[in-house]
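User: Some background: our group keeps a shared notebook of sequences we're curious about, and every so often someone picks one and asks for a predicted structure to add to the entry. Today it's my turn. The entry only has the sequence so far, pasted here. Could you supply the structure so I can complete it?
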Amino acid sequence: MADGIQPIFILPEGYTRTSGKDAQRNNIAAAKAIANTVKSTLGPRGMDKMLVDNIGDITITNDGVTVLKNMEVENPVAKMIVEVAKTQEEEVGDGTTTAVIIAGELLKSAETLLDQSIHPTLIARGYKLAANEAQNALDKMSIKLDINNKEDLIKVVKTATIGKSTGADEHIVNLIVDAIKHVKSVTGGTAGVDLDDIKIEKKVGGGLEDSELVKGVIIDKEKVHPDMPDIVKDAKIALVNMALEIEKTNVDAQIRIEKPEQLGAFLDEEERMLKEMVKKVKESGANVLVCQKGIDDTAQHFLAKSGILAFRRVSENDIKKIGKATGAKTVSSLDELEKESLGSAGLVKIEKLAGETLAFIEECKKSKSSNHPDKGRYGTRY
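Assistant: Of course. Here's the predicted structure to add to the notebook entry:
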């Protein structure tokens, strides 16, 4: 400040302000505390932790990121360490505990260097140089992974799942490997995987060994009418993002009905319009209808009479997956529904799983989407 004027800091009641070495020590201590919290979960002798939240729910895990997500962290540097774990989980899916422990040890070493009056900027620059050297060393040590070599893939998956609640269960490991191989794509000689192509449907009631891989799409929906078929072979699938209902007008309107015949004519006209909608679906050649919005009860009846299996209020995300797997194009008007816009699947069936009804769309020729219906008692995401 000019002319030696002392700056004034106004802080909320109950707050304290630290600066210089005190602030550095506090931040380093917070980071080390976070690292020490998850340190005991690392390695083959790692121990589980029991976490109890403020409403009494209990979580038992030895997964570093799960422990950190359930902790109430206030210190800003400690929050950054938690973000390190979350980023590691999102980008790699494994190694969260190791990343946090390394960060804690680097800050612990930085504390020793600060005691030797080395400037923090020099320490940060040194760590950056060390990171580059470590990256070069890792590049030399790395082994090229052949995505078609199942044995190597199994080793990778086992390493990633060993710290999860599934352990390294052989059945689950094989399901994961098969799913990855099914959805992989090769561009310019490099194999890649879009994880959005794999959906995990979790249902309570069985064990891990009951889980299975479905090379297609599963939607958590029931058929809209009991008289519709439970199994459709050689399915032709129509995707519509409109409602098969009589739309209400956008403005307030009144219909005056003075005679019973007028009411009958009005209802007959509604029925005719719904019948015409179903007729357009049938004429397109579709025998399975997936609707993003509602389907009127009368339309359901006509669809059932036509032998068409229909689902309503299916999420946009599920419709996209079905389109990707079957080649179907989503239409916003039944006038746009043609044979070319239909998708194809060898089998569409309704099954009960753990007491709930699910729709399975399988044998999709264009399928790069797969589902893993997990019937385990634990809602585990792999």
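Suggested note for the entry: The longest helix spans residues 260-283. Residues 375-382 have pLDDT under 50 and may be disordered.
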